[in-house]
Amino acid sequence: MIAELIKDSKKIVIKIGSNTLANEDGTICRDFLQNLSKQIQFLIEEGKQIVIVSSGARIAGVSTLGKWMRKEDMHYKQALCAIGQVELMDAYRRVFAVHDLHIGQMLLTREDFSDTNRTLNIRNTLFTLVDESVIPIINENDTVSVEEIRIGDNDTLAALTANLWNADLLILCSDIDGIYDKNPKVHKDAKLIEEVTNIKQLIKTIEIGEVNDFGTGGIATKIGAAKTVNDYGIPMILANGKKEDILLKLLEGTEKATVFLANNE
Ligand SMILES: Nc1ncnc2c1ncn2[C@@H]1O[C@H](COP(=O)(O)OP(=O)(O)O)[C@@H](O)[C@H]1O
Ligand SMILES: N[C@@H](CCC(=O)OP(=O)(O)O)C(=O)O
Questions:
Q1: Interval 51-75: pLDDT, tens
Q2: 167: in domain
Q3: What are phi and psi of 80, to 5 degrees?
Q4: Closest ligand to 105 CA?
Q5: CB-based contacts of 84: which residues, under 8 Å, 6+ apart?
Q6: What is the secondary structure of 50-86 as a DSSP string?
Q7: How many domains does the chain have?
Q8: Which CATH number covers residue 96?
Q9: Which candidate in 8, 9, 85, 102 could, as Cys together with 134 as Cys, close a disulfide (CB 3.0–4.6 Å)?
Q10: pTM for this entry
Q11: Is residue 265 part of a domain?
């Protein structure tokens, strides 16, 4: 099912979470980015168009400065994102350049999607970048939108982007294999749910656990993202971006994940 879905999708939005992108000590994981760029080059050679939504500015800010780690003050968090966004994009630029791939930065807020003029401008930039074979890398604009740092809305941002771009598929890369019946980081016997056709039913039956380390939205915003795209007819896959070659393995059918099918009730 998942392999077919990826095979049949031309326009794919891929969201990378903070925990996926970071090493245990909070620094940007270069090996992860190198592996991601290799996989994206492969997908592009297969004729796919890719848009990336990437978190990680705050983590990158912490590891760049090596301080403010424990400051929970919103102004410090915003400052960390401002510092880290530069690092983050530099890291992406370097690894993608190895494959002759160009990137473009887009910083957006949720409000931008409810304003007709701004939406049109986002659309024009997004379509032009993709038409010119440049990979857009989108993050929240954490300077102007503090709400989104608090609730970890890059999952929602990825879903809104998928709808705006009329994507064929949204893939959220996190640090777990998909949705489980309970938090797999806490319960060793948690069971992976491979296919979701009814989100309302899913919410009633699973336990939504705590967010860990640098993640901000947790599993709830991922389910919300699935609902947003599914309502638009776009399927969503939640997969473990920490696993090497995960996108290629999903394409081969040798790895598991959770798929939210677009005919969701
Ligand atoms: N039922 C569940 N199934 C899967 N993950 C869960 C569940 N409940 C809580 N989680 C937690 O949600 C985390 C993913 O959310 P988050 O940390 O925000 O990731 P990201 O940084 O990728 O956005 C997982 O690492 C896991 O610990
Ligand atoms: N814009 C913030 C990310 C917030 C966020 O959504 O994080 P995550 O839950 O890891 O996707 C940053 O780049 O650090």
A1: 999 999 998 998 887 766 656 778 8
A2: yes
A3: -60, -40
A4: 2
A5: 56, 57, 58, 59, 60, 61, 62, 63, 64
A6: EEEEE--HHHHHHHHHS--TT---HHHHHHHHHHHHH
A7: 1
A8: 3.40.1160.10
A9: 102
A10: 0.94
A11: no
